[in-house]
Amino acid sequence: MTAQATADDARAALGELVGDRAGEWDLAGRIPAETVREASRRGLLCAQVAAEHGGLGLDSRANGELTAHAGSLCGSLRSLMTSQGMAAWTVQRFGTAAQRGTFLPRLTGGETAGVAFSESGAGSDLSAMRTEIRREGDTVHVTGAKVWVTGAAYASLLVVFGTYGSGAAAVVVPADAPGVRIERVPDPMGCRAAGHADVHLDGVRVPAGHLLSGAGLPVALLATAALTYGRLSVAWGCAGILRACLDSAAAHARTREQFGKPLADHQLVARHLAELAVAEQVALRCCEHASACWDENRPELGTQAVVAKYVASREAVQGAATAVQVLASRGARDGHPVARAYRDAKLMEIIEGSTEISQLLLADHVRTGRG
User: Fold this and answer.
1) What are phi and psi of 156, to 5 degrees?
2) Among the listed residues 309, 324, 320, the one whose alpha carbon sits nearest the alpha carbon of residue 359
3) CA gap 371, 353 in Å, rounded
4) I need a surface site. Which of 10, 201, 208, 301 has the fewest CB within 10 A?
């Protein structure tokens, strides 16, 4: 099967799994467990994992387009794709051959994973993490508490980041290990069905083989690898949000009449549609460029992933607000796609590096003469 055929099949499978149920999932605050498992079994949640490990083997561009499609259908399922993809990439990037052979097939075979970074006192500043990872012989001890771990409520595995001596480490922790307690975040504003949860790790013990290589490296180096994947995934998802908002606003403006003509024929409404169309294209071009950097292994990948996430999330927030404005009362009802997009998009300006953190990173890039 060609790479394009694989990507087309993945897109069709994703549409089949979601159908018209995204609004229902959002209102219920959860996706059926069997749907999540099926998405994992089909390799949709981490589509860049190679075929040798049961994945689809998509490159960053094809996976991004799949992620955008998911973002246009269901922000919560797209969030699970981001989380699972980050977990898989962390294992791929820092795991040994044996660890990749152990954990990656699980993530493409029906199981799910969450990535635990943030803590109550360590959000943007991950150097303030207090979760401790310590090795004693053949056992790794993990103690700490994480907040807002996307997908943790569905997860069978957790990739936990924490301090390790004078540096940091990442360890794969089974969600059902003794000492692990997972508490759903009640009533999240956006991506309500993404299984956001706080994770408590009380003297958890796992085999030393669960500690990924790179233990002891600076936290910035370890975290950036995972965050680069997450930022690019969020950016593509935001492009999908913009696509859904444009489709909804355009369909409404073509059929809704006011003052004897369709809304689309009113100049101020037409301006909104034009701005939405441009926003989608701007987000897509930034995502495509960043994915090209990934696929071609360019050194500017990290910066371009930040650019894509920064631009796409800001455009998605404004675009969702514009779509609600065009649909007016019809789009202001809980459960409507643009109402859901309005809430989901705002969350995208916060996760995987807030808008302000992105601005600081980009300013530093320019200030140090790398711009």
Assistant:
1) -105, -20
2) 309
3) 20
4) 208
